User: What shape does this take?
Amino acid sequence: MEKSITTTLNEQEFESKIFEAVIKGLEKFGYPRTPEKITDDYLDQREAAKFLRVSLPTIIRWKKEKKIPYYQEERTVLFRKSELLNVLQKNESLLK
Assistant: This one.
């Protein structure tokens, strides 16, 4: 059963609440509270592995298995931080 939530928050307040929820979720896995690092930057495969604290082969496997979204132009593969965080929030078992 789906639940609906009605709020009087404006867009900026809503985004702030979502951001805080993501931070709390990351802290559960031992990530430090560093909002300046959590932006919508693009990461290459090595940076994504470091950001998620997993090995490079794990990132490559997740990409091939379509467990994480990515962008590719020719040989360049990039990931968006916000999308990686969203996947982790929805599928915590990836980091176990």
Q: What stands out?
A: The beta strands are 42-43, 71-73, 76-80. Helices lie at 11-28, 45-52, 56-64, 81-90. Residues 63 and 69 are 7 Å apart (CA to CA). Residues 34-95 form a domain with the Arc Repressor Mutant, subunit A fold (CATH 1.10.10).
